[in-house]
Amino acid sequence: MKKRLFIVSNRLPVNVENRDGEPVLKPSSGGLVSAIDSYLRQPSTQEFSSITWVGMPGCEPSDWEATAN
């Protein structure tokens, strides 16, 4: 049985920007995102059946809500 990986941090690996009224997801930069991204690219992470990252999107609530539409 494969394991599930949950990553809980204060930020998500994406930022949401509003361009001409449309939400645009852009990769976040920074040490945490770089380190976890590097780890997730390792062959050993194939043991996980799912990977879920929980955190704050770092944008206005209206921008984040627009991504769900």
Tell the overall outline: elongated
- Which parts are unreliable, with pLDDT below 50 for 5 consecutive residues or more? none
Number of strands: 4
How much of the sequence is in beta strands?
35-45%
Biggest sheet strand line-up: 1-4
Q: Counting H and I runs of at least 4 residues, what is the number of helices?
A: 2
Structural class determined from secondary elements: alpha+beta
Name the helix and strand elements from N-terminus to C-terminus, one letter apiece. EEEHEH
Mean pLDDT across residues: 83
Largest sheet: 2 strands, parallel
Cα distance spanning the termini:
35 Å
Question: How large, in whole angstroms, is the Cα Rg?
Answer: 14 Å
Share of helical residues: 10-25%
Overview of the molecule:
The chain has 69 residues and is an alpha+beta fold. It is built from two helices and four strands, in the order E-E-E-H-E-H. The chain has helices spanning 31-40, 61-67; strands at residues 3-11, 14-19, 22-27, 48-56. It is elongated. The chain starts with a strand and ends with a helix.
